[in-house]
Amino acid sequence: MAKITLQNLAHSYYPNPKGEDDFALKELNHDWADGEAYALLGSSGCGKSTLLNIISGLLHPSQGRILFDDKDVTQASTADRNIAQVFQFPVVYDTMTVRDNLAFPLKNRGASAQYIQDRVQQIGQMIGMEAELNKRARGLTADAKQKISLGRGMVREDVNALLFDEPLTVIDPHMKWELRTQLKSLHHEFGHTMIYVTHDQTEALTFADKVVVMYDGRVVQIGTPQELFEKPQHTFVGYFIGSPGMNVIPAEITGKTASVHGASLDLNRGYDALSGKVEIGVRPEFVTLTDGPGLPVSIRRVEDVGRHKIVRADLFGTEINIVAGESTSISPDMTKVVFDPAQVNVYVDDWLQTGKAA
Fold first, then answer.
1. φ and ψ of 210, to 5 deg
2. Which Pfam families match (predicted)?
3. Residue 295 sits in which domain range?
């Protein structure tokens, strides 16, 4: 297990990058604590896999350093970094049995036969393949082979870090939930430093202690699921986390008042003069549809998703979402919305503004 430090780290796939736009991974300076589980979350092309491959040693960064427990490993090979990596698609030895696939990393390091037997049995149980341990991998389904890959990545207890690159892509939905739960359980039991790349917010939020949200090659926020939900530091975080995501609405801010197309609403904090692209962000859970005073909206449709209703509405040409209780009655005269002032965030050029307490 290791603390992972990223110092002035950046990467470009161009031989002579001329500016920031040429970098697939913008400059990073972060410490990731020993023994924590992190998820790298973001849409395709945001730099998640690039960063993971730099940490693992499969890719050499254009600039900066990677340190494991304050030891510079930037030039070290993948083997010398003592990490285990599981890829998006299964990598197994078809001619070997499931048991031998799982035992392979331990045999390579000279572990005792008894330890190998016990550990393989434990991992086989964890991935639900005890009954298949003596079967050859050839002929198994893609999701079974990926479970072998996961198991082989987790079989060693002495690694500095476990790295997962969208490992559940080929796993069926029910097994995804079970494997995520088992990975979390393994982390609690053994305390490995884990980094898990995914574009699926459910995977990230249920697996990780801290979620590292990436956008356009940049880390825009690192936080707990609660922090990402309550205080998105960037509008992308608000949009990407939550279902539906945060409403982002153009506004003008004067002190403790936001003006949306001339309609005013109170804020919980005060702000100095703001310049740039100014917007407010509010989660659909903190928007209430009403027939009383509020901002005027036009309802487009109502979606009943069982536990609650999602109201799709138009606010001065901006589409917004409202989450209403399952038993809430939506009537035609509900043509206004109100926002909870304590839950309205202010953004300039997509970044959260702190403001001053009232």
1. -130, 140
2. ABC_tran, OB_MalK
3. 247-357
